[in-house]
Structure formats: C-alpha cells, structure tokens
Design brief:
Protein name: B box-type domain-containing protein
Keywords: Coiled coil, Metal-binding, Zinc, Zinc-finger
Structural class: alpha+beta
Strand content: 25-35%
CATH class of the largest domain: Mainly Beta
Largest sheet: 4 strands, antiparallel
Radius of gyration: 47 Å
Distance between the termini: 71 Å
Organism: Mytilus coruscus
Number of helices: 5
CATH architecture of the largest domain: 6 Propeller
Number of strands: 32
Strand order of the largest sheet: 9-32-31-30
Number of domains: 4
Shape: elongated
CATH superfamily of the largest domain: TolB, C-terminal domain
GO molecular function: zinc ion binding
C-alpha cells in the first residue's frame, strides 16, 4: 500500500501499530487503524480492544461502516470502568462501583435502551433539521425568484420612464416646432402689414409735398389766380394722415411653469408596493358631540371642522371648534350627503336626494354651484389641481339597476384651478367590456395627482366595495373587503374613503369598527380593529394639514352619550 507525500513521491504505507511492516492486511473499524498480521493478534489480545471489528482488506476491499453503537467500550464518568449503565436521575454513565456508592436507589437503564432512545431523539431532530433545510432552500429559491421579479419590474419601469421621456421629448419638440412655425407666419404677416403701411405713408408724404410746392408759388402769382390755387390744393386728399401707426395685434408668449409638480403630472409617478404590513394608531384628541352620528367630517386647519348630521328627521351642517373651546360656530339647515373642500377652503355640499351642489363661502353664505338635473348628485371630490369629481345616479331606488339606469362619475376639468370655470366632457360609467362599473357611487377620493380614482360603491344598504379606475377611466381593481373580518353577518361597506399624505387609501368600515389600509395597486397593507383602542362605529374620515386623521363616529342605539370625533396619528 502506498501514499503520496507533498512532493508527489510514492511512500510505502506501514502498519499503524508497529510502524515497520508494510504488509497491510487488516483494518480495525473501531480504531480506524491499518494492521499487519502480527499486530492484528496483538490488537485482539488487548482486553479493552478484544471486541473491536477487524476487517480483512483482501477479502473485503470496501469494508462496511459499523453503524451500531458499541456498548461494551464506554467508560463511566468517574472510574473509567466499562460495562456501564445510565443513571436517568443524574443523567450520567455509571459503573458497578458508582452504583454501589451513590446510585443504588436511582433509576438505572441499560446503555442499549438509553442509546436507542437518544438515537431516536437525534433521528427526530435530524428529520426536523432536514425539514428546516428544505424550507430554507425553498425560501432561498423563492427569494431568488422574487429578486428576479423585482429586478424585472424595475427594468420594466425604467423602460416605461425612458419611453415616456422620449414621448415627452418628441411632444415638446413637435410643439416647439409648431410654435416657431406660427411665429414665422405671424412675423411674415406683420412685416407685410408694415410694408403696406410704409408705402401708403410715402404716397401721402408725396401728395403733401406737392401741396406745399403749390402753396409756395401762390405768393408770386396774381391775386386773381388765388381761386385756382385753392382749387388745386383742396383737390388733394388728406385723409389717413392721422392714422394710428401702432400695430393692432401684439404677440406674447405665455410661458407655462416647469416646476417639479408640473413635470411630475405629465411624466407620471411611482408608488411602492413592498411596504410594512402593520399599522399603529395613537389617539391624540377625543371630542364628544351632542349628535348621535357624524355623517360627514371635513377639517381645514386642525382647529375648525364642518360636521353634517341627520337625526330625528332633522339635518344640519355645523362649523365647529376642535380645540378646548369645542362647540358650534355656525349652523346651516341643509341635509348633506357628501362634503368636500376646494383649494380656497370653500365648503362644497351635495344636497341629499337633489341634483344640486351648494358652495359655502368663507363667511358662511350659501350659493348654488352646480346642478346635474335630471340626475341626483351623490359623491363629490376636489383634487389638488381643482378638478372636480361627482358621483350621480338617476332618481328612484338607489340599488335597483335597470337598462335605463344611469350610475356614473362626472369629471369637471378646471382650467384655472377654480370651480367658476368648470366644464365637463368626461364621464365614467362602463368598463371596457361594456359592463356597469357602479351601483351607487357614494364616495370618491384620488391618489397620485388623479392618476388613481377610488370610488366607494354602495351595493346595498349594508354592503359595498371599492372600484378603482385609472385617469382614462379604465377599471384597475376592485376591493370587496378583508375576509378575516368581513362576513355575511358583517359585510364590508366603505362608509368613507380618504387618501393619506403618503398616498395610501384609508377606508372606514363601520360595521366592523375597523380601518382598512390599501396601496394604489389594491394590496391590503393593514386592517386595524379600532374597538381595540376604544373607537367604535367609524363613519367619516378626513386628513388635516398636519397629517392627523380625523374620525367621526356613530353611536349604538342604546348609547345615550354623544357621537365622538377623534384625531389620530397613523404609524405605518
């Protein structure tokens, strides 16, 4: 038998015991020693080694590994004697001397049984580790797939950004070229107009000079010829001498803003899909009203709010203090179905069961803003750029749909950010398959500067859903609630929806005392049960300037206290 040294030369293998004989014939499987014929006998005659398994290398080139644990060569912990037992009370190996001295009344077990139990336990542990390894391998594989998907999505977004950049560049270049062409045409027309004027003035100057010459010769002429001179001079026309030489048309260039917001509105925006799936809510303020429910709530600056109520067949909209001077400042006797603020902080109210939207000015004067006759107005929403979204339906049963039903969103574009110049030529009623989008569009909000339009669609008196469209009115996704809390006994109905400053969608689920938090892609980020922190029956929502979420609640029938308004902070 030979082996290689570090230099690569062959070295003859010798017996591991005598280290002289090179005739290696055996291997002790317990000691892992190679033996010659003589040392095999010596090895067998050693009492502690007599039971070792010795393999004949010539008869078995590949000796099987002995997987059976030998019990006869395990010494005790103290006397190093063999043929031990296991003390289960002390969990140590003990020999006969140990047993007679300290372990007489202890629970003893044979090594075979102890080892079998421990081997069985280790096998189970091995199986668990194997499962964990498989699970980790799967997680690693899933992570690799997720990494590829993530990178592909980023590459896709980058490609779309590049395409949009090229599209905008082309559009800008085309528009600039058109403006330059228009400018060249206007320059040509202007120059032509000026040349005509100049020619006319020259002609008039020549005529006037001719008159002067005639008048100069008049002094040297006989007085009888004065009448002839007068006739000659007066025959020359003098009209147009005082003609205005200023051009009647002036060209100006109306330059649009290239601010980050303007460019972003054209270019588009991104929202993050991978977000934390937890939502903590901290109550900052709690106010108790004299009402039984808060139908609508809009907060301007964190100090005042407009609140609408309807109870005992009496409706009102009240302006209220939200500070320590909590109370009503102004009350309007109107029944509001929905409310919204304009950019000028004017309050808009859609009047219940009518076609009319009223505007409440800063000094609380009511005036009609919009009439959608013969339809009935439902939801109203004003975007940051002044665009105006209105949910409408025909008169009659709000949830019964017929072929003649009209349930849609009207979009009024504001050219100057003010509602005084509202014009509507866009509406959303059907999807691309000509199926109805809505049953009763009762709440609306937007995110990403109007790129995503979220509609709270009420299907019945106790059930609803979110219908989400893109800027073109195409259906993006539908949200029917969280199956973990919504059921047939407690259906999902979006009593109110708002967009957070971070671009999330917050939904009031009154039936389940919950808030649902979604992102623009329709993923449920979190669902928080508000009754865990003492808030029940959330019905109306509003974010204020400082980022606080205001929640207007209803009360239980048996509750004699007033409905509460909360200011909370969301931590996502």
């Amino acid at each position: 038998m030979a082996s290689n040294d570090e230099g690569g030369a062959q070295v003859i293998k010798t017996c591991d015991l005598c280290e002289r004989d090179t005739d290696i014939r055996y291997k002790c499987m317990d000691c892992n020693k190679f033996l010659c014929e003589r040392c095999k006998g010596i090895h067998k005659n050693v009492p502690t080694l007599s039971l070792h398994d010795i393999c004949d290398l010539k008869s078995e080139l590949l000796c099987p590994v002995n997987t059976k644990v030998r019990m006869d060569n395990i010494p005790c912990n103290y006397h190093k004697k063999f043929q031990c037992m296991f003390c289960k009370d002390c969990e140590v190996l003990v020999c006969s001397e140990c047993i007679s001295n300290l372990h007489q009344k202890h629970c003893l077990e044979s090594l075979e049984k102890t080892c079998e139990e421990k081997l069985s336990k280790l096998e189970r542990y091995k199986a668990e580790i194997g499962k964990d390894v498989v699970s980790l391998q799967k997680s690693y594989s899933d992570l690799a797939i997720a990494k590829t998907k993530w990178e592909n999505s980023l590459d896709d977004i980058r490609s779309k950004i590049n395409d949009k950049e090229d599209e905008l560049k082309e559009a800008v270049t085309k528009n600039a070229s058109k403006l330059r062409d228009d400018l060249t045409e206007k320059r040509r027309d202007g120059i032509e107009y000026i040349l005509i004027k100049q020619k006319r003035f020259k002609e008039m100057e020549h005529k006037l000079n001719s008159k002067l010459e005639i008048l100069k010769t008049m002094q040297s002429s006989a007085r009888g010829e004065i009448f002839a001179f007068e006739q000659q001079v007066m025959n020359y026309p003098t009209s147009g001498i005082s003609e205005n030489v200023i051009l009647r048309k002036e060209i100006k260039y109306l330059e649009r803003s290239t601010s980050e917001e303007t460019v972003s509105a054209l270019f588009g925006s991104m929202y993050v899909l991978d977000v934390p799936y937890t939502m903590d809510i901290t109550i900052d303020r709690s106010l108790t009203t004299n009402f039984s429910n808060i139908e609508n709530l809009v907060v301007s600056d964190g100090e005042t709010a407009w609140v609408s109520t309807f109870e005992n067949n009496e409706a009102s909209v009240q302006k209220m203090h939200l500070t320590e001077m909590f109370g009503t400042l102004k009350q309007l006797t109107v029944h509001a179905f929905d409310m919204a603020f304009t950019e000028n902080n004017d309050l808009l109210i859609s009047i219940q069961s009518t076609s009319e939207i009223m505007r409440v000015s800063f000094n609380c004067e009511l005036e009609s803003l919009l009439d959608v006759s013969p339809l009935i107005v439902k939801a109203i929403h004003v975007t940051k750029n002044g665009d105006f979204y209105v949910g409408v339906r025909e008169s009659g049963d709000p949830f019964e749909l017929t072929e003649s039903s009209c349930r849609k969103i009207l979009v009024y574009k504001s050219s100057d950010g003010k509602q005084s110049s509202l014009t509507s030529n866009v509406s959303y009623e059907y999807d691309q398959s000509k199926q109805r989008l809505f049953t009763s569009p009762c709440r609306i909000t937007t995110i990403s500067d109007g790129d995503v339009i979220i509609v709270g669609d009420w299907i019945t008196h106790i059930e609803g859903r979110l219908v989400v469209l893109n800027r073109n009115g195409d259906l993006e996704w539908i949200y029917n609630g969280n199956s973990k809390i919504n059921s047939d006994k407690s259906k999902f109905r979006p009593y109110d929806i708002v967009s957070s400053p971070e671009g999330y969608i917050v939904v009031a689920d009154k039936n389940n005392h919950a808030l649902h938090l979604l992102n623009g892609a329709g993923e449920l980020i979190a669902c928080k049960l508000l009754d865990e922190i003492g808030i029940t029956l959330p019905k109306s929502l509003c974010f204020d300037f400082w980022g606080y979420l205001w929640i207007g609640c209803s009360t239980f029938t048996e509750d004699k206290s007033g409905a509460k308004i909360y200011a909370v902070k969301l931590s996502i």
